[in-house]
Task: structure prediction
Amino acid sequence: MNEKQFEGIITKGVGGLYTVRPLSRDNVTVGDDGTLLLRARGIFRHDGITPLPGDRVICKRVTESGEDGEFVIDEIEERINSLIRPAIANLTHLFVFIPAARPKPDLITADKLISAAEDKNIEPVIVITKTDIDESEARIIADIYEKGAFFVFQISSVTGEGVSDLYSYMERESRNHMIAAFAGVSGAGKSTLMAKLFPDLSLKTGEVSRKIQRGKHTTRHAELYPLTIGESTLHIADTPGFSMLDFAKFNFTDKENLPYTFREFAPLMGECRYTKCTHTKEEGCKVLEKIRGGEISSSRHESYMAMLEEINKNPPWKKNK
Result:
């Protein structure tokens, strides 16, 4: 890259203007916050493409009358994924919060989020909170997801248990350009943990969150906050005003693909006795065999059954009709 172009990441987009953080500041003059406010080339609108927070972009100077003008977003690099609500591209990790108590654990909601993440090639990370209230329940939940080879963290924002382990994990993963979001039921302790992990982020987003609570019809746009962690930078998606459950809303997939969004089931696909096994009650079903053997949690299968029933009631063709 030279002084006439640079690579960056979009952190926010409002009204046709995009906040872009250069990945390198060599030969690029940025504002006090390390970003530039740029427009995108009209070709994107013509092609029906909307730049999104999380997009990696190539920005070039516009040449006018032989002289260098302002930078514009010239190219959007290939996306890993994109979400509609919240409108974010290239999300790499979804931290799924499950409280051990207060409120009661809602594993079906958690599993919907996990499956939606798996479907979009996003790494789900399980964060079990409030372990100081019910340590036994936290351990039961952890066992469910550890069997599925998920990264699982048991956290208490009161005692500090597990917080440093989660921070170390995020530091390690941020070396590969982590873009993360926190999700889960209300009251799971997301905001409290965020404040402990990243006090600066809490200060930046707190006032925004309060404004959203006062004006519930306020239009919101997803925004990414860059945070230095170790020697790397990670981006945290700020989504107050959005329901992350919209992300996991059915129908994000069809019933044929649903088993593949359960990582415990996926390696067993094609191994059942019947080609069109639904993994619900058939003889010779490898998934059911693993459940009976204790290798797959029955709780995960219960969620699968509930999600399958919901898809059958509201198939994709009916939704899109």
Notes: The mean pLDDT is 87.
